Amino acid sequence: MGFFKEFKEFAVKGNVVDLAVGVVIGGAFGKIVTSLVEDLITPALLSPALKAINAEDLASLVIPGTAIKYGSFLAATISFIVVAFALFLMIKGINKLKKEAPKEEEAPAGPTQEQLLIEIRDLLKNK
Length: 127
Prior knowledge:
This protein has helices at residues 2-11, 14-52, 70-97, 113-126.
């Protein structure tokens, strides 16, 4: 019975649950980013740019007489840059939406113990 109790303690630890939530949220966020890139950015920006340079199908570009598919590498690189830029914009927008916590004002610094003792001494001398 000790094995199952130990497993239960491990499975419901805060770190494990937090990690599970992070993975699920990360997966959902990944779908949002993928949709943003594939459904909005690529049709609006990338497709017209590739048509303008007559390179609509980058993946099919190869060095003649070899098996080197540099087009696939270019497509993956461009995809990475677009996804990274989309993530950057999304995170920047999310950070703007977050409200900054109001900064606590520091209490004005009072006299130190030494200063108070000096004042007490001076008052006693004057009496």
